[in-house]
Design brief:
2 domains, three-stranded antiparallel beta sheet, Aspartate Aminotransferase, domain 2, Aspartate Aminotransferase, domain 1, 44% helix, alpha/beta, single chain, 14 helices, 12 strands, 402 residues, globular
C-alpha cells in the first residue's frame, strides 16, 4: 500500500511546531513560560457579541446546517463595513463570501483556481498559508520580497519575464505577518496596474486592517479604481474583535473569484454555526469601542516591548501595525540561527517566540514576537531575556556605558 502521499510529500516539517512542542512540554512540567510565539489574542470579545451568541443559540431552530457562503445578514454587514471604512461598494450576493477564518478562505481559493504546475508569486517571508495553500494545490511558488519598495516591483518584473509558465496569481498581505510592514494606496495602485498588464489575479490578505498605529489607517487594495477586476481581499474578525477561536473571516471583491471560492466551499462545508454568524453581525454592526481599545492596547504593548527589550540589550524595531514585532537576532547571537535561538530563549529564559525561518528562508535571522501578553508579563520577559543575554556574554546598554 502506497503511503508516500503526493501532497504530504510537498509539505516540509513545520519548523514553528518544534518550538510549540517544546513550549507545551515545558508548561506540562510546571514551568512558567511567557508565550510570545503564537498570535493568539488574550483579550475577550465584546460582551454584546457573546450575548448575541447565547441568545441565538437558545433558539431551537438555530442548530441545523447553516449557509456555506454565509447568512445574508452577515454578508450585508461586511459590505457595510467596507463602505464605512474604505468607501468601497460591494454587492453582498456576488462579491462577498463568509469564510471559516481567512486561512480557510485562502486555502480553498487556492484549490479553486490553481492547477498542478501553475506558478504563483508569493511573499517571502510570509504567513505559511500564502505559500502552502498553493503548494498543496499543486502549484509552484516563485518568491517575491515583502518589502514594498522598488526591489519589490523589480522582482515582479523579473518573475513575469523569466518564469515559465507565466505566473497567474500574486499573493500579498499588508500589514504583513510576520514582518509588520505596511503599504499606502499608491503602492496598491502600482500593483493593480501591474496585475492588469500581466493578467494576474491578486489575493490580498488584510487580516490586520484595524491594528495600525501612529494614526496611519491601513488602506484596502479595493480602494483602487478597477481593483475588483483582478483582486479579492481577505479579512478576519480574529484580531479586530478578539474572536480568533470563532473562525470568522471574509473574502470580498472580484465576482469571478468569489464565485469560484463559493462553489468549492459548497462541496466542503455548510458554513459556520449560525449563532456565531449572528454574533459576528452584532460585532460588525454594533459599537466599535473594542476596535479602538484593542488598537490602543497593542500600541502600548508595542512601546513597552521595544523599550524594555532595548534596555535588556535586544534592540527591536517598532512595528507600525499588526500585533507582531519582527525582531532581528541580537548581533552577537546571530550565528545561532532563528530556530536554535528560539529554542535557547525558551529553555533558558522561559520566553517563547516564533523562529523567522518558519515563515520562509528569507525570514532567517529574525524571530516574530507576538504582543499577546500584558505589560507586566512583557516586562518580565525582558528581565528573563536580559539574564539570558548576560549568560551568553552579551553586554546590556547599562553594562556597556559602565
Amino acid at each position: 500500500m502506497d503511503t508516500d502521499f503526493y501532497r504530504i510529500k510537498r509539505l516540509p516539517p513545520y519548523v514553528i511546531a518544534e518550538v510549540n512542542a517544546m513550549r507545551a512540554a515545558a508548561r506540562a512540567a510546571g514551568e512558567d513560560i511567557i508565550d510570545l510565539g503564537m498570535g493568539n489574542p488574550d483579550l475577550p470579545p465584546p460582551p454584546h457579541v457573546i450575548e448575541k451568541l447565547c441568545e441565538v443559540a437558545k433558539k431551537p431552530d438555530a442548530h441545523g446546517y447553516s449557509a456555506s457562503k454565509g447568512i445574508p445578514g452577515l454578508r450585508r454587514a461586511q459590505a457595510g463595513y467596507y463602505a464605512r471604512r474604505f468607501g468601497v461598494e460591494l454587492d453582498p450576493e456576488r462579491e462577498v463570501v463568509v469564510t471559516l477564518g481567512s486561512k480557510e478562505g485562502l486555502a480553498n481559493l487556492a484549490q479553486a483556481i490553481t492547477a498542478p504546475g501553475d506558478v504563483v508569486l508569493a511573499p517571502n517571508p510570509s504567513y505559511p498559508i500564502h505559500t502552502f495553500g498553493f503548494i498543496i494545490a499543486g502549484a509552484t511558488i516563485r518568491s517575491v520580497p515583502t518589502t514594498p519598495d522598488e526591489r519589490y516591483f523589480e522582482s515582479l518584473e523579473r518573475a513575469v519575464k523569466f518564469t515559465v509558465p507565466k505566473p497567474s496569481v500574486l499573493v500579498m498581505g499588508y500589514p504583513s505577518n510576520p514582518t509588520a510592514e505596511v503599504v499606502d494606496l499608491a503602492f496598491y495602485e502600482r500593483v493593480v496596474a501591474f496585475a492588469k498588464e500581466h493578467e494576474l489575479w491578486i489575493l490580498s490578505d488584510l487580516a490586520y486592517s484595524e491594528i495600525y498605529f501612529d494614526d496611519c489607517p491601513t488602506p484596502s487594495i479595493l480602494q483602487v479604481p478597477g481593483a475588483k477586476d483582478v483582486a479579492v481581499e481577505f479579512t478576519s474578525m480574529s484580531k479586530t474583535y478578539s474572536m480568533a477561536g470563532w473562525r470568522m473571516g471574509f473574502a470580498v471583491g472580484n465576482p469571478t473569484l468569489i464565485a469560484a471560492l463559493t462553489r468549492v466551499k459548497s462541496y466542503l462545508d455548510y458554513g459556520a454555526f449560525t449563532p456565531i454568524q449572528a454574533a459576528a453581525v452584532a460585532a460588525i454592526n454594533g459599537p466599535q469601542d473594542i476596535v479602538d481599545a484593542n488598537r490602543r492596547l497593542y500600541k502600548h504593548r508595542r512601546d513597552v516591548l521595544v523599550e524594555s527589550f532595548g534596555r535588556a540589550g535586544w534592540e527591536i524595531p517598532a512595528p507600525r501595525a499588526s500585533m507582531f514585532a519582527w525582531a532581528p537576532l541580537p548581533p552577537a547571537l546571530a550565528h545561532l540561527g532563528s530556530l536554535e535561538f528560539s529554542k535557547q530563549l525558551l529553555t533558558h529564559a522561559g520566553v517563547a517566540v516564533a523562529p523567522g525561518v518558519g515563515y520562509g528562508e528569507e525570514g532567517e535571522g529574525f524571530v516574530r514576537i507576538a504582543m499577546v501578553e500584558n505589560e507586566q508579563r512583557i516586562r518580565q520577559a525582558a528581565r528573563n531575556v536580559k539574564r539570558y543575554l548576560a549568560s551568553m556574554g552579551v553586554n546590556t546598554p547599562a553594562q556597556t556605558s559602565a
